[in-house]
Amino acid sequence: MSIIEKIIPEYQSECALTRKTLERVPYEHADWKPHPKSMSINQLASHIADAQGWMVPTCTSDEMHFDPGTWKPFISIDSADLLKKFDENVKAAVDIMKTVSDEALSRTWRMIGPGGKVFMEMPRIAVIRGMVINHTIHHRAQLTVYLRLKDVPVPAIYGPSADDSGGF
């Protein structure tokens, strides 16, 4: 079994848990943020959905050019739009992951900014684990705090929450 074949089920499981969280985003509070320096609920949820799209360029090229000054993040308009983007990106991510060899996973991947500045350089496997999977888990956890602060029931993730037994 290849390395990626071992990672795909974990990614799919984490995405299923993430989708449960995204389904609860309260669009009546889309612009709310817990602090002026924080993202709004909609910005955070949209970022989570959009970040799944990073898997394709991570798996298909050895570098990605990124200009923070011209980048336009995805911002969902409602729950259906958010979940559609998330589902499309997760499907594309799983499909592309199935094509990646162990050799390709060990190759160096770089994110390059304006003027050729290297923002990040590490093995592709580390980008997949750190910048897609773990990054998603981190932001999902943030989103559950936002849900709690807006009194939206928090889904069970790795076990029951105060609001959801999760079948336990």
Describe this structure as you would to a colleague.
With 168 residues, this protein is mostly helical. Helices cover 52% and strands 8% of the residues. The protein contains 6 helices and 3 strands; from the N terminus they run H-H-H-E-H-H-E-E-H. It has helices at residues 3-22, 41-51, 55-60, 79-97, 102-106, 124-149, and strands spanning 63-65, 108-112, 118-123. It has a 3-stranded mixed beta sheet. Strand 2 and strand 3 form a beta hairpin. Helix 1 (3-22) packs parallel to helix 6, helix 2 (41-51) packs parallel to helix 4 (79-97) and helix 2 runs antiparallel to helix 6 (124-149). The longest helix has 26 residues, at 124-149. The protein is globular and about 45 Å long. The two termini are 32 Å apart. The model has no long low-confidence stretch (mean pLDDT 96).
Features:
168 residues; 6 helices; single chain; mainly alpha; 3-stranded mixed beta sheet
List the helices and strands and how they pair.
Blueprint: H1 3-22, H2 41-51, H3 55-60, E1 63-65, H4 79-97, H5 102-106, E2 108-112, E3 118-123, H6 124-149
Parallel strand pairs: 1-2
Antiparallel strand pairs: 2-3
Rounded to the nearest angstrom, the distance between the terminal CA atoms is 32 Å
Based on helices, strands and strand pairing, what is the structural class? Answer: mainly alpha
Order of helices and strands: HHHEHHEEH
What ranges have pLDDT less than 50 throughout 5 or more consecutive residues?
Answer: none
Gyration radius, in Å: 17 Å
Give the DSSP E fraction (strand runs of 2 or more residues): 5-15%
Number of helices: 6
